[in-house]
């Protein structure tokens, strides 16, 4: 085989290798982005259900537009809202997109927080989340304040 043919084969192998590497990177980025969007969709559904709970009359096992917010007894309010939405007794819900938790909004009686750590690696592989799911995971939080005109506030990390 001539030198020119060997160089062409080496060049072809390099081009194919670069194309494969770029394809893997693009797929990884798209996978992380799709996971983040799926989590946001789930969180919007949970937020809507939490507001539906808040608006439902107490006689129908709803919040009865509790005052303040989701109710003065925060622990009981979280369990009740969580059960309404479909969370377990520990305030955890898991699906293919990630693991969700429900909290009070930093001790506020008028704010509810639902967070999720996704199943996919995010864009920042050194990001450490507070849930111990390893580094680089997609993490999204939604803050729900039912009495406000704009009831949803987002916190998207990684």
Q: So what's the overall shape?
A: rod-shaped
- Secondary structure: helix percent: 40-55%
**Oligomer category:** single chain
Strand order across the largest sheet: 1-2-3-4-5
Strand percent estimate: 15-25%
Rg: 23 Å
Strand/helix succession: HHEEEEE
- Structural class assignment: alpha+beta
How far is it from the N-terminal to the C-terminal residue, by CA?
51 Å
| Low-confidence segments | 125-129, 131-135
Average pLDDT score: 75
User: If helices are DSSP runs of H or I spanning 4 or more residues, what is the number of helices?
Assistant: 2
**Number of domains as seen in the coordinates:** 1
- The total strand number stands at 5
Largest sheet: 5 strands, antiparallel
What does this structure look like?
The protein has 2 helices and 5 strands. With 158 residues, it is α+β, with helices and mostly antiparallel strands. It has one domain (3-157). The protein has a 5-stranded antiparallel sheet.
Describe what is shown at a glance.
The radius of gyration is 23 Å and the shape is rod-shaped. The protein is α+β, with helices and mostly antiparallel strands.
């Amino acid at each position: 085989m001539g030198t020119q043919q060997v160089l062409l084969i080496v060049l072809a192998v390099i081009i194919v290798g670069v194309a494969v590497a770029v394809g893997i990177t693009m797929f990884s980025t798209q996978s992380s982005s799709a996971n983040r969007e799926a989590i946001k969709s789930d969180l919007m559904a949970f937020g809507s259900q939490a507001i539906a709970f808040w608006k439902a009359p107490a006689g129908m096992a709803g919040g009865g537009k509790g005052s303040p917010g989701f109710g003065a007894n925060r622990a009981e309010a979280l369990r009740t809202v969580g059960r309404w939405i479909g969370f377990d007794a520990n305030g955890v819900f898991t699906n293919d997109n990630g693991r969700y938790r429900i909290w009070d909004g930093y001790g506020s009686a008028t704010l509810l927080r639902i967070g999720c750590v996704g199943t996919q690696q995010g864009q920042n592989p050194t990001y450490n989340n507070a849930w111990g799911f390893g580094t680089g995971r997609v993490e999204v939080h939604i803050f729900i304040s039912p009495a406000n005109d704009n009831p949803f506030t987002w916190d998207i990390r990684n």
